[in-house]
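Slide 14.
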Amino acid sequence: MAVVLGQHSPPAPHAADGRLAVDGGNPVRRTPWPTYDKGAVFVHPEDEEAAVRAIRSHLYFRYDQRAQQETECGKLEDELCRYFGTTHALAVSSGTAALALAIMAARIPPGSLVACPGFTFVATPSAIVLAGCLPFLVDVDENLQLDLADLQRRWTPQIKAILVVHMRGFAADMDALTRFAAQVGVPVFEDAVPALGAELRGRKLGTFGLAGAFSTQSDKSLNCGEGGFLVTDDRAIFARAVVLSGAYEGRFRRHFPDGEPPIDTDLDLPLLSFRMDEIRAALLRAELDRLPIRLERFRSNYEYVAAALADLPEIAIRQPVAPGAYLGEAFIFRVPDGDASWFAHALCCEGIDARNLGSAADNNVRAFWNWRFVFGTEDVTATKARLPNATRYLQQAVDVPLSSTLSVQDCDHLVAAVRRVAAAIADNRDRPARAQPR
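Slide 15: predicted structure.
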């Protein structure tokens, strides 16, 4: 059931003695918090039937005797072009693959620096490395967005591209970033992997830059377990990405049925086998029909929770760059004057899945100092000092996943739990310092 702002349900239960669950009181909820890894996914019988239809066809490989427009992958790509308003779309094996293909297809020279924010999933720097380039990490602001002032201050001609991330579904400031990129003469790529369907001022994320990359992994707006896709209006980038993804022995020509492709041969580029298969494409095509419903549920859940907690002085809720410029699949807030690690632990004890993004006790791959493949044997303290604001804000940040399957009662449980834990901080400011997170 979708949550509508202003709806009410019975209040969540409270411990009779007022104690937090972390201190032995009764938790706000006892049922598991709905998340994708527990099976809380937005999949309908029609989606299952589509996947079964593809299985029964015995045609699992996207390049068979059929024309491009007759395959599940080809139809999905056409439908994605219509949805995003782009000229080209390419279905691939993952969002990471889509990111790497965009960089490689744009011919960013190997060894170049590619700027990206210090708050992102590890797939972002991994894709840069996969493309033969080097991540150049940029600090973030209090809302965990790339700090353009830091990028401008530290700019170097060795940076040949900017990889913007709409992290945890919140749009980056694309107007400011694309203006700056135009000034310095480098392309912008969008990591819209965590923001499929979200918009900024009426324009879909992933369509502002030279190319946008998306994921269809299990917790994304479209879910087929693994997978992803790239969108672009650049014909040459698309052609090279098609070849790189694995359209060998002339198969890349199938993607240009109405004219000659802008490249002559597929022998000048490596074959990376980043293709999507027909079964996943069939599932995604069916899910695409109900994507607007899922997006509305994300948004209504988020708005309901954010409005109910907006008055709490103990937390600072992440703010969007423009009204409504977010997906709503995660609720992130900072605990500026408390122990965010304890806060997240206390929420978990109340029955709400929560994570302190910068916890010292957690090897969270969204914390840049855990990317040892980038920093090698450098001391972690020295790594954190590279991006002092990102370090501070991630250490303050609590992340709660918001599945599109959440009910009104689920949202009320989250609100009640956050209020209980925040009240404990307000009543006893030194409690987080004494408590030990698990």
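Speaker note: Residues 1-16, 434-438 have pLDDT under 50 and may be disordered.
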